[in-house]
């Protein structure tokens, strides 16, 4: 015997129970199952009132899931696709900028762990880090710091 189709609210709560969603993302996922756009908006308003849906929690979740592996530029690019408010985007950018160097250093250590020994290796490390969304200045500081440490322990002698 086939199951009856899920109600729109049950579908939304199911999505939200798996992970946080932005309002825009949840609207996009529910739209094919709704009779009208107004029905989706009414449901989203109710979910926000009942505190099931929160863009602030979504931002925290996004930072938790992405910030340890990606730079501010990459996380911000993803956040903008979720149509967050300007104030939320500014707060997110400030949070990411404050921890950018520490996060980038950890990503670099996990991937490379030692300073580049050739110009080609240096270019490869820079490309990798920039593709992850870290700024050129942060990548430069990490590599310069790694190379300076290498000089102190006698690696270049």
Automatic annotation (TrEMBL):
Query: InterPro entries from the xrefs?
Result: RecX_HTH_1st, RecX_HTH_3rd, Regulatory_RecX, WH-like_DNA-bd_sf
Q: Which Gene3D superfamilies match?
A: Winged helix-like DNA-binding domain superfamily/Winged helix DNA-binding domain
List residues of the RecX third three-helical domain. Answer: 98-143
The record's section on Pfam families has: RecX_HTH1, RecX_HTH3
Tell me where in or outside the cell this protein is found: Cytoplasm
Any one annotated GO CC term: cytoplasm
Q: What is its main location?
A: cytoplasm
Kindly state a single biological-process term from the GO annotations of this entry: regulation of DNA repair
Q: Which UniProt keywords apply?
A: Cytoplasm
Q: Which residues form the RecX first three-helical domain?
A: 9-45
Described purpose of this protein according to its UniProt entry: Modulates RecA activity.
Which family does the record claim for this protein?
Belongs to the RecX family.
Q: What is this protein called?
A: Regulatory protein RecX
Q: Which organism is it from?
A: Cupriavidus agavae
């Amino acid at each position: 015997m086939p199951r009856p189709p899920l109600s729109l609210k049950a579908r939304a709560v199911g999505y939200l129970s798996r992970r946080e969603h932005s309002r825009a993302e949840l609207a996009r996922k529910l739209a094919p199952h709704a009779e009208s756009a107004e029905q989706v908006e009414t449901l989203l308003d109710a979910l926000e009132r009942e505190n099931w849906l929160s863009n602030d929690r979504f931002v925290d979740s996004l930072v938790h899931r992405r910030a340890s592996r990606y730079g501010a530029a990459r996380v911000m690019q993803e956040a903008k696709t979720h149509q967050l408010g300007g104030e939320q985007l500014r707060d997110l950018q400030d949070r990411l900028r404050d921890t950018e160097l520490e996060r980038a250093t950890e990503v670099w250590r996990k991937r490379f762990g030692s300073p580049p020994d050739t110009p080609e290796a240096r270019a490869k490390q820079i490309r990798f880090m920039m593709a992850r969304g870290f700024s050129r200045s942060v990548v430069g500081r990490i590599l310069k710091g790694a190379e300076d440490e290498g000089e102190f322990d006698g690696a270049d002698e």
